[in-house]
């Protein structure tokens, strides 16, 4: 649904730009910061009316139903076939005061807060801590949910990459990046590239709109920065008619994400050997595309080659600044990937995954399966029995028993 709303927003912005008497393909140098902000603000003002007034009724049942079918009819059964298993988690009992504190204040109360909650609810501190642990585990996404999220992203990246490559393979700027600026700013935009832009922009807007409900990752903040920078990059490149180089940027980014999402899917299915192979393949593709192709081909042509065709203006500096933000994120993620490659090469397996396809480690120590959870009294009895067994078998006790035996042996004269 969020993806559909994003596409509707983009179509409305496109209509506003086409009727604003400012043709971005012919007057790119007139785009100043004030002009750019005014256009965006003018479009945002009308988005609410466009979505909630003109589109109250469900006018796109096929699009929505196809997305639901992908998740319910294909993704979920596929997860079962591949062997994805969900952990059985204990549901926290209904305690209104604890539930209100959990939702309104904190999911991990401090020791003083635990004491206060225990007095209010008439429960021990141990039971309060156990309730919050169960409640946190209850909100953790299941492996099936994470598999479905990775599967629909895989479908998008694969579709987008094939569509982008098919629309660019015959273009001159795909092979010679200097052609991105020949004839600029009067460069016509083909229908294929227009829909390629709509597809990518709608996807990244949907990621930003659904960031609060998606699975939290270790690089959550970096992902948000990446989505915002990408949205500004796609939107501004279309307004400034940087469409040719913009299509190359999107194609480069989609190439490695396909392998990443497949690796996530098989990771949740515990296909360890296949995941290791895909991780190595992903690392190679990511390092080549993000650390070589992106800076040497794309940033080089936007930063240096473009100045051979026109003088720098606001769009030149703004667009390159966004590209450098993306490149900084690429370097950060490459560092994490190289750490994993080092562990994989010298340890032999990947432990403590630091890539972006892992969850936030906030509650890693709190995760416990059903049947492995027991009450504090049961744990205490188990500990006491183990201590008793240890006391009966320890070396010190054996020495004591040996001394008692020797004391009972009659002494020889």
Automatic annotation (TrEMBL):
It comes from the Eukaryota. Residues 87-143 bind DNA. Residues 145-346 form the TLC domain. The keyword Translocase does not apply. Residues 355-375 are annotated as: Disordered. Pathway: Sphingolipid metabolism; Lipid metabolism; sphingolipid metabolism. GO terms for cellular component: endoplasmic reticulum membrane; nucleus. Coiled coil: none annotated. It is found in: Endoplasmic reticulum membrane; Nucleus. SUPFAM superfamilies: Homeodomain-like. SMART domains: HOX, TLC. The chain crosses the membrane at residues 30-51, 63-82, 154-174, 194-212, 224-245, 265-293, 314-335. Its main location: endoplasmic reticulum. Keywords: DNA-binding, Endoplasmic reticulum, Homeobox, Lipid biosynthesis, Lipid metabolism, Membrane, Nucleus, Transferase, Transmembrane, Transmembrane helix. Residues 85-142 form the Homeobox domain. GO terms for molecular function: DNA binding; sphingosine N-acyltransferase activity. It catalyses: sphinganine + octadecanoyl-CoA = N-(octadecanoyl)-sphinganine + CoA + H(+). GO terms for biological process: ceramide biosynthetic process. This is Ceramide synthase 4a. It comes from Oreochromis niloticus. The gene is LOC100702158.
